Amino acid sequence: MSADSGYIRFIDTRHLVAVARHYHVTIRVLRRVGHFVPAGIPLMMASKGNRLPPEGTAELLAAFDLGPTRTLQQDVEFGVLQIVDIALKAISPAVNDPSTAITCVDQLSRILIRFASREPPEEMLYDPPGIVRASLAWIHFERLLEAAFEQIRMYSKADVAVSLRLLRALRDIAASTPDPEFRRILVERGVRIVAGCAEKLGEEELRELRARQAALESFTAISQPQIRTAGGGDAAQEDLEVPVAGRALLGLGYSKKVLGRLPAPFRSHNFFGAARAGFSTEESPESDRAIED
Q1: Contact 20, 51 (CB under 8 A)
Q2: pTM of the full predicted structure?
Q3: pLDDT tens digits, 119-153
Q4: Cα separation of 158 and 155, whole Å?
Q5: Does residue 239 lie within any of the structural domains?
Q6: Measured distance CA(105)–CA(185) in Å, rounded
Q7: Residue ranges of the chain with pLDDT lower than 70?
Q8: Residues of the domain holding 16
Q9: What is the CATH number of the domain that holds 46?
Q10: Confidence (pLDDT) at 218
Q11: Contacts by 100-106, CB closer than 8 A, 24 or more apart
């Protein structure tokens, strides 16, 4: 259990795995970075927890940095919520500054595009290979998307300009990801934006919103583009075609693997680069005892 109340600001996964291996236990972390943990609430579960002496429990707890406020070190959601707060203040009746809210939406879309392009952190940690030592959750794309846009959507139902920018942001994110599940989630968010605006706006004002919704939905009809090699071979080879738009995105830190799988509208020219495959998923181990200090 946590001895003190606070937000999880950082988890030292290497230390966590090393301690778990030393005592031959498997740890399941119950809360992720950014979550608040009241004192006395279990922070971890341990299989074969009877192997843990009091000093072992203290060593495991030392892998967690808890504090009175959230930080940006491992907590991307915290940064997103700070931008959302600015947007909500801007669209409040007392301020009525849609231009600032639109700027916030633009910045949030940039963060989400970058987040979707990166490999997610490992949730199952092994040492040695094949032996699970720790499992922990990290924020996923859908949760970060909700944190970024849901409150703005709710409070901008009567604001055409902000709602239009939300739909364009969703379309930009959909255009930058090859993941069909991500695109499906983005389309669902677009439907909710237009449905919410229909409660407050007239048919004339909804026309452009529906046009942008249709543009967003068009990306679900675009199948995964066939990736061609420079020599005309298949995608199993390494020299993959990357969109010309990727040249600019490469400078922002996107992997060539992701850029090589962007939708067809971005594939107007050839730009070749290397790519590597691979996501892997594992199930969380069963746990049987709350760690107590």
Answers
A1: no
A2: 0.74
A3: 889 999 999 999 999 999 999 999 999 999 999 99
A4: 8
A5: yes
A6: 17
A7: 219-293
A8: 6-70
A9: 3.90.1170
A10: 83
A11: 101/152, 101/156, 101/159, 101/162, 101/165, 102/161, 102/162, 102/165, 104/152, 105/149, 105/152, 105/162, 105/165, 105/166, 105/169, 106/165, 106/169
